[in-house]
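Reminder to self: tokens first, then the designed residues, so the page reads top to bottom the way the pipeline ran.
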């Protein structure tokens, strides 16, 4: 009874009360454990030891299932074994409990019989889908959020401003919203009905979750338990400006680690998402006296959630509910991958964030582990970025494909700039006929297989040859410490095309803005003028090549 009461009042993963259905599952597991203990002659939980736990697991696996000839799956065994984590965590509050750590040196997944080679890893969001998703979410936060937030006071005022039975207040609110949006062009996306207001509010919640998950990387439970005022500023050592962080707590099923305060470095878009959540939840927080940003009515998500709100009906949404919102958000955006709809889920943002950081820079795994709240870097390496072998394999495949695509572009584009670009234009073969695309791809693959090292960056390509390297690279490739736009621009290995024109145009504008600063030192002025001349020269080269070819 003590254990069931503790399980009902406190979840190991969130610290909040569990639903009755979840408690019933643990009660069934406890009944199975008592049945096994009675058969083995154990009268107290304190008499159990590690060998007894192994025997209990074996008994679970071999115990026949009603209507199923096969053994229990590792996931079922894991759910039963996880009961011992409650025994160990609450041992100080129980009159009778186990006297050993049931998962010392491993976790409940391994104890239940999971093997990494057989486990299907959680998927990440493909790059093409992730880019479209995050861009759309940020666009909703910047463009749609102010419109939706301004519409809610209009709804509340109309809903409480008269009497009527049934849904009369909905009609009044719709008329008020239409009146408030009169004269506003459709291009500004005004809210014209209560139904539209509810839909766009749910999309706004989904966009907030996407931005925080994909750009910051917390666990879903850590996002859902963020509180008002969680955005703070910290003065980092050696940093010229304060670092913006989101303050929360670790939600991880490990004794001594769960509930520990944690800080995530947050970009401006994530800070804006938190600000939108604070505005959306202001009414719920005022009524309930709680600080959580994700308070929602436990059943139903109509407009009356913000009109007739009762504090006892407010709760933090479940992961299943967030999954449904994300899937609706993805369907609304029309996200597809390989001509099939892509299904979003709560874990994909964290996995995609970790993969993106690890693929860009392998040396950042320690910082990534700290951002994700992992106890050890090995967990980041193995569970999120992949093991050394698997990550290296994925990086090599990504670099190979990027190199092939870059060579195809250089072989087919009408004009190339840069010192190496002129050389490629003079010597590249001509491709014609129906099989031009196939011949281009084959020739590009041949160049890559021949060992030509190709550096790819935002400002151009580097057809690397050590003897011409302005960055003082070695046999392995360019020197990353010295590789920057100005060095590349004067290098004999450098190639630039129409694809890179936006970067150099932005450099021109940036240098021109700097020259307008009246207080720049003389040395800085000379450097800025030199950079401006480089950027203008490359832009002229790109434009002239394009005109000649056209």
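Designed residues (550 positions):
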């Amino acid at each position: 009874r003590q254990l069931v009461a503790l399980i009902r009042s406190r979840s190991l993963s969130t610290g909040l009360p569990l639903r009755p259905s979840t408690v019933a599952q643990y009660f069934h597991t406890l009944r199975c454990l008592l049945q096994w203990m009675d058969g083995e002659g154990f009268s107290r939980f304190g008499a159990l030891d590690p060998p007894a736990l192994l025997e209990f697991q074996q008994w679970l696996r071999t115990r026949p299932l009603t209507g199923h000839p096969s053994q229990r799956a590792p996931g079922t065994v894991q759910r039963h074994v996880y009961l011992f984590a409650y025994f160990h965590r609450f041992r100080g509050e129980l009159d009778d409990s186990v006297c050993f750590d049931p998962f010392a040196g491993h976790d409940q997944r391994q104890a239940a019989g999971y093997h990494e080679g057989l486990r299907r890893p959680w998927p990440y969001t493909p790059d093409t889908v992730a880019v479209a998703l995050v861009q759309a979410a940020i666009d909703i936060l910047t463009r749609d959020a102010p419109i939706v937030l301004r519409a809610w006071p209009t709804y509340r005022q109309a809903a409480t401003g008269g009497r009527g039975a049934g849904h009369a207040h909905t009609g009044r609110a719709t008329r008020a919203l239409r009146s408030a949006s009169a004269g506003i062009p459709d291009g500004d996306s005004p809210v014209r009905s209560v139904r539209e207001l509810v839909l766009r509010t749910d999309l706004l919640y989904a966009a907030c979750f996407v931005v925080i998950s994909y750009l910051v990387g917390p666990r879903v439970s850590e996002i859902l338990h963020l509180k008002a005022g969680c955005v703070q500023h910290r003065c980092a050592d050696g940093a010229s400006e304060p670092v913006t962080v989101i303050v929360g707590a670790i939600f991880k099923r490990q004794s001594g680690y769960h509930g520990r305060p944690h800080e995530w470095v947050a970009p401006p878009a994530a800070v804006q998402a938190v600000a939108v959540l604070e505005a959306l939840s202001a009414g719920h927080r005022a009524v309930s006296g709680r600080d959580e940003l994700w308070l929602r009515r436990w059943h139903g998500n109509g407009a009356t959630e913000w009109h007739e709100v009762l504090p006892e009906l407010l709760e933090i949404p479940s992961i299943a509910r967030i999954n449904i919102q994300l899937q609706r958000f993805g369907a609304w955006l029309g996200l597809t991958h390989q001509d099939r709809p892509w299904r979003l889920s709560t874990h994909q943002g964290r996995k995609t964030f970790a993969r993106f950081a690890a693929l860009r820079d392998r040396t950042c795994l320690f910082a990534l582990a700290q951002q994700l709240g992992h106890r050890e870097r090995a967990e980041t390496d193995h569970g999120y970025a992949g093991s050394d072998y698997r990550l290296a394999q994925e990086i090599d495949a990504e670099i190979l494909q990027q190199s092939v695509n870059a060579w195809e572009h250089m072989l087919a584009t009408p004009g190339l700039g840069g010192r190496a670009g002129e050389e490629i234009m003079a010597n590249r073969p001509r491709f014609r006929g129906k099989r031009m695309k196939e011949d281009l791809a084959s020739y590009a693959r041949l160049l890559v297989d021949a060992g030509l090292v190709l550096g790819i960056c935002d400002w151009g390509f580097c057809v690397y040859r050590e003897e011409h390297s302005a960055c003082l690279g070695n046999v392995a490739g360019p020197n990353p410490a010295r590789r920057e736009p100005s060095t590349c621009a004067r290098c004999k290995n450098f190639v630039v095309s129409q694809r890179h024109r936006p970067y150099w145009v932005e450099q021109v504008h940036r240098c021109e803005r700097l020259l307008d600063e009246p207080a720049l030192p003389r040395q800085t002025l000379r450097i800025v003028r030199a950079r401006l001349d480089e950027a203008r020269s490359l832009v002229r080269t790109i434009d002239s090549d394009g005109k000649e070819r056209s």
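Residues 319 and 346 are 7 Å apart (CA to CA).
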